[in-house]
């Protein structure tokens, strides 16, 4: 029994190691060549694995892209939340978090994998698990700001969805633009203006 448990654990560890290797290799290949040009045979050979390992872990190339997008998008959300947490208060944090997420669209890896290939292959980003996690964090912040009397007493999920959608669409706009650097300040300024519309009007 112990031997069988040990073998199962070893097999599980090997699968996890293979998964990590494949995601790292795919992240590099998708960033350098784009999703459609990246060769799965080259990718698996680079990490000493077979196509079988890829199919076993991700089913197909699309599944591998989904895993890579999830990893990068989650990293983006964590980074944005860290920046927001240093902003001083919940309201400034909300603005800083949104602006940080938008600014990450200047990163070539983020542009190509998450904002260009991701939606083209995986569909509506608002349906991605990583975006849903980000939405829940924003919703929690909105609830706090409503409770503090800073934001209007709107439905927290509705407000969070619109704020998240605005930041995501701004990032998509930057990624698709021929001059991302000139688009960034316009996008951040508009995001701040939209968010300010949720503030309670003070006489």
How is this structure best described in words?
Helix content is 78%, strand content 0%. The protein is elongated. The chain has two domains: 1-59, Arc Repressor Mutant, subunit A; 69-203, Orthogonal Bundle (Tetracycline Repressor, domain 2). It contains nine helices and no strands. α1 crosses α3 and α5 (90-103) runs parallel beside α8 (156-176). It has helices spanning 2-33, 40-46, 51-58, 61-85, 90-103, 108-122, 129-147, 156-176, 180-196. The N and C termini lie far apart (73 Å). By secondary structure, it is an all-alpha fold.
Protein structure class: mainly alpha
Strand content: under 5%
What's the number of structural domains? 2
Give the distance, in angstroms, between the N- and C-terminal Cα atoms. 73 Å
How is this fold's topology laid out?
Blueprint: H1 2-33, H2 40-46, H3 51-58, H4 61-85, H5 90-103, H6 108-122, H7 129-147, H8 156-176, H9 180-196
Helix pairs in contact: 1-2, 1-3, 1-4, 1-6, 3-4, 4-5, 4-6, 4-7, 5-8, 5-9, 6-8, 7-8, 8-9
Short characterization:
This protein has helices at residues 2-33, 40-46, 51-58, 61-85, 90-103, 108-122, 129-147, 156-176, 180-196. It has 203 residues and is mostly helical.
Keywords:
DNA-binding transcription factor activity, Tetracycline Repressor, domain 2, 203 residues, mainly alpha, Homeodomain-like_sf, Arc Repressor Mutant, subunit A, 78% helix
């Amino acid at each position: 029994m112990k031997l069988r448990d040990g073998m199962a654990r070893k097999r599980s560890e090997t699968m996890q190691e293979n998964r990590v290797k494949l995601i790292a290799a795919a992240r590099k290949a998708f960033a350098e060549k784009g999703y459609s040009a990246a060769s799965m045979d080259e990718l698996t050979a680079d990490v000493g694995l077979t196509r079988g390992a890829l199919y076993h872990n991700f089913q197909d190339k699309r599944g591998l892209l989904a895993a890579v997008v999830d990893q990068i998008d989650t990293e983006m959300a964590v980074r944005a939340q860290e920046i927001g947490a240093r902003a001083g208060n919940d309201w400034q944090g909300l603005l800083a978090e949104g602006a940080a997420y938008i600014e990450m669209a200047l990163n070539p890896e983020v542009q190509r994998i998450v904002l260009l290939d991701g939606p083209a292959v995986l569909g509506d980003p608002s349906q991605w698990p990583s975006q849903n996690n980000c939405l829940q964090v924003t919703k929690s912040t909105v609830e706090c700001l409503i409770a503090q009397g800073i934001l209007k007493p709107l439905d927290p999920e509705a407000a969070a969805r619109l704020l998240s959608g605005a930041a995501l669409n701004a990032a998509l706009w930057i990624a698709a633009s021929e001059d991302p650097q000139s688009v960034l300040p316009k996008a951040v300024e508009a995001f701040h203006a939209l968010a300010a519309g949720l503030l309670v009007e003070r006489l």
